[in-house]
């Protein structure tokens, strides 16, 4: 691989950057580039600084990372993500929860294959299995077909507030606290939002907001 064309940095998001991560060490060695470790707290504090960087995430630790900091906005499209150590075929909602998913590697993939794919991502290419690509294409085609007239969606100011909170990864309880309303009221608003947008869940609502709400 031609190392001189690499410009962007791949960061390994982990619970403790002082711990040993043998698989990441092997990927780093095969890639021929350093993969700095970054913890969720550090990532949150320097979010603006890191928003254009690529996050490497071990799928086995994904839920733990999400629960470490509840506001960890991995579903935000500004974060490019590479997921490895996946042990099964993921649902479309799971794939969408990784934000701007650039690459996915299964547990039995060879280290060289993972390193090569990471190199392609660093060079601004995608490296997704064919079935994963087909899932995402099917989802986005359906989303486009069902949302061809977003201007006609009659959202209230409060519903837009809640949609923007969803984009940050906030839970129902956090939204209630931030807006000084009950969690029941948040759920009621979400029901109306999902109905108006013709979506089934938070992930699809966030996807709609990312495409149609101005920053």
UniProtKB/TrEMBL annotation:
Q: Which InterPro entries match?
A: Sig_transdc_resp-reg_C-effctor (IPR016032), Tscrpt_reg_LuxR_C (IPR000792), WH-like_DNA-bd_sf (IPR036388)
| Molecular function in Gene Ontology | DNA binding
Top-level taxon of the source organism: Bacteria
SUPFAM superfamilies in alphabetical order: C-terminal effector domain of the bipartite response regulators
Asked whether the UniProt record includes Transcription regulation among its keywords, one would answer yes
Q: Which UniProt keywords apply?
A: DNA-binding, Transcription, Transcription regulation
- GO biological process, alphabetically ordered: regulation of DNA-templated transcription
Domain annotation HTH luxR-type: ranges: 148-213
What protein is this chain from? LuxR family transcriptional regulator
């Amino acid at each position: 691989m031609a190392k001189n064309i690499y410009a962007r940095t791949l960061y390994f998001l982990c619970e403790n950057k002082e711990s040993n991560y043998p698989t990441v060490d092997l990927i780093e060695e095969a890639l021929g580039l350093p993969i700095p470790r970054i913890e969720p707290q550090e990532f949150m504090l320097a979010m603006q600084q890191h928003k254009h960087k690529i996050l490497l995430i071990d799928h086995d630790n994904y839920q733990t990372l999400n629960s470490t900091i509840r506001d960890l906005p991995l579903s935000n499209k500004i974060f490019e993500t590479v997921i490895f150590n996946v042990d099964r075929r993921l649902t479309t909602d799971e794939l969408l929860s990784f934000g701007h998913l650039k690459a996915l590697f299964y547990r039995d993939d060879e280290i060289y294959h993972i390193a090569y794919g990471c190199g392609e991502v660093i060079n601004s290419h995608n490296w997704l299995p064919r079935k994963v690509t087909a899932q995402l294409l099917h989802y986005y085609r359906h989303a486009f077909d069902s949302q061809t007239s977003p201007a006609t969606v009659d959202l209230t100011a409060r519903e837009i507030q809640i949609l923007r909170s969803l984009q940050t990864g906030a839970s129902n309880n956090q939204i209630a606290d931030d807006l000084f309303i009950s969690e029941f009221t948040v759920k009621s608003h979400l029901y109306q939002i999902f109905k108006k947008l013709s979506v089934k869940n938070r992930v699809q609502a966030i996807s709609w907001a990312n495409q149609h709400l101005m920053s």
